[in-house]
Amino acid sequence: MRSRALNGLAAVVVAVGVTQLLAAAFGRGADALNAVGSAVIDRTPGPVKEWAIQTFGTADKTVLSIAVLVVIGVLAAAAGVCETPRRPVGSVLIAVAGIAGCAAILSRPGGRPLDMIPTVVGIITGIVVLRIFTRKSARPQRGSEPDAARRSSLAVFAALLGGVLAGVAGGVLSRRLQSVAGERNAAVLPPAHEAAPPLPAGVQPKDVGLPSFVTTNADFYRIDTALLAPQVSRTDWRLRIHGMVDREMTYSLEDLEQFEVVEKAVTLTCVSNPVGGNLISNALWRGYRVSDLLSRVGIQHDADMVLSTSVDGFTAGTPVEALTDGRGSLLAFAMNGEALPVEHGYPARLVVPGLYGYVSATKWVTDLELTRFDRARAYWTRLGWSARAPIKTESRIDVPRSGQRVAVGSVTFGGVAWAQSRGVRAVEVRIDDEPWRAAELGANYSNDTWRLWSYRWAASPGSHTISVRATDNSGTVQTPERTPVMPDGATGWHTVVFTAA
Fold first, then answer.
1. Which are the contacts of 199, defined by CB distance < 8 A and separation ≥ 6?
2. Could you tell me if 27 and 115 are in contact, meaning their C-beta atoms sit under 8 angstroms apart?
């Protein structure tokens, strides 16, 4: 039984390895593993996706990739066990898996029948290998039985090793052939006509270990539906604006140079950020005002939504007013003084202050359709999230951490607060049953960015609880009511239990 399972595993590893190696020559669309993983993401119910984000955070894609490989391994072992010389049940299972892979490839945006060739060749190779090993296993052995068994085992392990090496080589070749990292690193960024104001003194509270006011590109959170970040060349990129407009237009990056370049700091927040969560970051963005682009097409008076589409098929529905009301929504091409990292949307993405990312922050954006909320639904709204998603007034404790031990005596706590488009007026802290007391705020940069806070306290021995709440510039105080992230963002006071000793 075990040797037959290994036969199936070896055959499928060879099939996947050959597929990945050939796919490198055909392009990204021929990557069957990525296509299957992406299809799984697209067809997973919304609550399950949210569970994965809450459980695994930014490692959700890694976990999914491992899960896909585990499932493939289980099916491979089952194919080997079911296969006999007279009944090729395992071969049929491999063929069915190949058909599913081809269907996944065709389901992706831009999927072509030509892209199925590596998968078809890989599946045929895997079936041939399985048939050969199955017949050898069933054939009476000649000569010394231990030697024959050893030779058979060596052949199986050689096939496993060859399949793994082919798959790794295919992955490496694909990255080298398709990567736009070199192009990105060599990109010359146009200067900003309207530069962002310098950071004021005191924006970063002292004597407390808080996140940097400006998040580095490497530390900026990433939540999206792309299993592998799309590799889009700036020479191939186009932005089509159409739908309920007077004039349809298509822009290349060179065409966009006619518009003013704007630079501004904006804090982005994921709707999946739980109370006290870290799916929020602040960066300096450079790009073109979306309102300038839309002014050229002539928006029809009854259009109330812009449906933005990524090169990988993801969609987001953004209220027209959020892109035209002067808040400074950007088609961004740079992040913290560099061309956008590939993982964050190179060569262009949307940055819209005041809205959760699932309705506004489309990466690798290639299409803007003017439409209506009662006519179209975007990716996440089809899965149960709200169509409109203004960011709520929230705050977080970064110091102390839950369960942390702090020294008795004078200690400084701190965290961040945010209310994008409204700004933070005040932050208050409560320890145990004491009254709410005002925290010291870092210097205010703008209403579109988070605000850091600190609070000095004389710690007495024992277990304590610290809570925080923010007030925005409209006078709205952060609600204590705990609500989940679905359908339009979590609410509630962040509370941490710690010990002073």
1. 213, 214, 445
2. yes
Q: How many CB atoms lie within 10 A of CB 76?
A: 27
Question: Which residues neighbour 248 within 8 Å (Cβ) at sequence distance 6 or greater?
Answer: 240, 241, 242, 297
Query: Does 216 fall in a domain?
Result: no
What lies within 8 Å, CB to CB, of 393 at 6+ separation is: 417, 418, 419, 422, 424, 470, 471, 472, 476, 477, 478
Whether 404 and 375 share a structural domain: no
> Is pLDDT of 141 > 60?
no
Q: What is the pLDDT of residues 72-131, one digit of tens each?
A: 999 999 999 999 998 999 999 999 999 999 999 999 988 899 999 999 999 999 999 999
Are residues 50 and 21 both part of a single domain? yes
Q: Confidence band (pLDDT; 50, 70, 90) for 211? A: very high
pLDDT value at residue 44: 87
Q: Is residue 194 part of a domain?
A: no
* Separation CA 123–CA 19 (nearest Å): 8
Within a domain: 228: no
Measured in whole angstroms, the distance separating CA 438 from the mean position of its chain's CA atoms is 36
Range of the domain at 496: 394-500
104, 97 contact by CB (below 8 A):
no
- Positive or negative, the CA dihedral 101, 106, 109, 112 is positive
